[in-house]
C-alpha cells in the first residue's frame, strides 16, 4: 500500500468518525456556511496580481516537519500583504500536522480566496469545507474515480464552492470531464515516489482545454521557473514548502514576488 492509499484509508475512517461528532445539520449552522465564497478563478485570472497561491503547511509525509510551530494568522496575513493572489491551507491533521482551526483562523484574518487542501473522499468534507470558510476545494484525480469527481464537483458547486482538480498524468486528464472544474492543477510531485519534476506541468499543459485555468504545483522555487510556466500557459503557481522552510515565510514570498515584478 503506497502513501496515497494509506491516506485514503485513514481519511475514510476519519470522516466516518466526524459524521457522528459533527452532523451535517450542525455544520450548516456555522456562520461561514452561509457566507458567499471569494472566487479564486477570478483572482488568479487577474493579470495585475502575482498568480501565487501561497500555502500554509507544517509538515509532510515525505519531508517530516517543515515549520512545526508556524503561526497561521501571522503567516497567512503576511502572505497576502506580500502580494500573494490567494491562500492554500492544509487541513489534514494526521499526515500533515494541521491544527483543526487553521483554516478558520486564516479566514478570520484574510479576505481572499482560500483553498482547503486535504484529501476529499466524501461529500461530507465539502460541507465541512464550506463551514470552515473555504472558497475552493481540492479534488485529487489519482484518489478518485471519474464518477466520484463529477459527483463531488457538482455538489461543491451547489454549495457555492469552486473546484480545483489536481492531475499527475495524461490518463487522469483523458478520463475526466472538466465541465464543472474551475481550476486544473498539475502536480510536479509524483505521489508514489515523491520525486519532483517541473517538466511534468509543461508536458501535460497542452492536454488541458485552453479555457481551463491552469495551476502548477510543487517544486516552484524561482522567478525563472514561474516565467517558464507562464510561457507554457499557466496562470497560477501553488507554492508551499519553498516559503514555509524559511524562518519568515511571508518575507520569502515577498522576495519572490518582487523578483517577478522586477523582471516583468
Characteristic terms for this protein:
264 residues; alpha/beta; TIM Barrel; eight-stranded parallel beta barrel; two-stranded antiparallel ribbon; 12 helices; globular
Write up this protein.
- This protein is α/β, with parallel strands linked by helices and 264 residues long.
- The chain has a single domain, classed as TIM Barrel (Alpha-Beta Barrel).
- Helix content is 42%, strand content 16%.
- The chain contains 12 helices and 10 strands.
- The strands form 2 sheets. The chain has an 8-stranded parallel β-barrel with strand order 1-4-5-6-7-8-9-10, surrounded by 5 helices. A two-stranded antiparallel ribbon has the order 2-3.
- The protein starts with a helix and ends with a helix.
- The model has no long low-confidence stretch (mean pLDDT 94).
Give me the secondary-structure topology.
Elements: H1 3-21, H2 24-27, H3 40-45, E1 52-56, E2 59-60, E3 64-65, H4 72-82, E4 86-90, H5 102-109, E5 114-117, H6 124-132, E6 136-140, H7 146-158, E7 162-167, H8 170-175, E8 183-187, H9 199-205, E9 213-217, H10 223-231, E10 236-239, H11 241-244, H12 249-263
Helix pairs in contact: 4-5, 4-12, 10-12
Q: What is the H level of CATH, i.e. the homologous superfamily?
A: Aldolase class I
SS field, number of helical segments:
12
| Helix coverage percent | 40-55%
Low-confidence stretches: none
Beta-strand content estimate: 15-25%
> Could you give a short account of the major beta sheet?
8 strands, parallel, barrel
> What does the radius of gyration come to?
17 Å
What is the CATH C level class, in words?
Alpha Beta
SSE pattern, N- to C-terminal: HHHEEEHEHEHEHEHEHEHEHH
The residue-averaged pLDDT reads 94
Going by CATH, the architecture would be Alpha-Beta Barrel
Counted beta strands: 10
Amino acid at each position: 500500500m503506497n502513501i496515497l492509499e494509506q491516506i485514503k484509508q485513514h481519511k475514510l475512517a476519519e470522516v466516518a468518525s466526524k459524521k457522528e461528532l459533527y452532523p451535517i445539520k450542525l455544520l450548516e449552522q456555522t456562520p461561514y456556511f452561509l457566507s458567499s465564497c471569494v472566487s479564486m478563478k477570478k483572482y488568479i485570472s487577474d493579470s495585475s496580481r502575482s498568480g501565487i497561491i501561497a500555502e500554509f503547511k507544517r509538515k509532510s509525509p515525505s519531508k517530516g516537519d517543515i515549520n512545526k510551530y508556524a503561526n497561521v494568522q501571522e503567516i497567512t496575513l503576511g502572505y497576502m500583504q506580500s502580494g500573494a493572489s490567494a491562500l492554500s491551507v492544509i487541513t489534514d491533521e494526521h499526515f500533515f500536522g494541521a491544527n483543526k482551526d487553521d483554516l478558520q483562523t486564516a479566514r478570520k484574518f484574510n479576505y481572499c480566496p482560500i483553498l482547503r487542501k486535504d484529501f476529499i473522499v466524501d461529500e461530507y468534507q465539502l460541507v465541512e469545507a464550506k463551514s470552515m470558510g473555504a472558497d475552493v476545494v481540492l479534488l485529487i484525480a489519482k484518489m478518485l474515480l471519474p464518477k466520484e469527481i463529477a459527483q463531488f464537483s457538482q455538489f461543491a458547486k451547489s454549495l457555492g464552492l469552486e473546484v480545483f482538480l489536481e492531475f499527475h498524468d495524461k490518463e487522469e486528464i483523458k478520463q475526466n470531464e472538466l465541465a464543472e472544474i474551475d481550476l486544473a492543477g498539475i502536480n510536479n510531485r509524483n505521489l508514489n515516489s515523491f520525486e519532483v519534476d517541473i517538466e511534468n506541468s509543461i508536458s501535460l499543459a497542452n492536454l488541458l482545454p485552453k479555457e481551463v485555468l491552469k495551476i502548477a504545483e510543487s517544486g516552484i522555487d524561482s522567478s525563472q521557473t514561474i516565467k517558464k510556466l507562464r510561457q507554457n500557459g499557466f496562470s497560477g503557481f501553488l507554492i508551499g514548502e519553498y516559503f514555509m522552510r524559511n524562518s519568515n515565510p511571508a518575507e520569502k514570498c515577498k522576495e519572490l514576488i518582487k523578483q517577478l515584478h522586477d523582471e516583468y
